[in-house]
UniProtKB/TrEMBL annotation:
This is Peroxidase. Pfam families: An_peroxidase. SUPFAM superfamilies: Heme-dependent peroxidases. GO terms for cellular component: extracellular region. One of its GO terms (molecular function) is peroxidase activity. Keywords: Glycoprotein, Secreted. It is found in: Secreted. InterPro entries: Haem_peroxidase_animal (IPR019791), Haem_peroxidase_sf (IPR010255), Haem_peroxidase_sf_animal (IPR037120).
Amino acid sequence: LGLTKKELSILPELSDVPQPEFRCPFRTPRCNPNSKFREADGSCNNLQRPLWGKAGMPLKRFLSPWYDDGVSSPRTLGVFGNPLPSARLVSTTIHEADSENTRNPFVSHMVMQWGQFIDHDITNTPVDT
């Protein structure tokens, strides 16, 4: 992954990110371990850490974000300085009309929708700085 020694040194602490209620006004919900379903907001999915995965909670990143303008502009160069392909080229290459993936009887349009749901959930999640 091309991690620096500093980035590697903090990986163990990322697995036990402090509960955000120490810094935020969130209260830890009371979870019913016998409930057939978890909460719609994602709380109580992890009974030991009920706020993990809850809507609106910040995530700690494994790696620092890397943008062309340092803020939000998508990267145009790879780690070795080579130009990155456009997102459109990557998408059309992966989903080529005569690709075996497009003829898979076990993969439907729902797979794409699920991926988009996960992507938008991650993209719109606050980041713990």
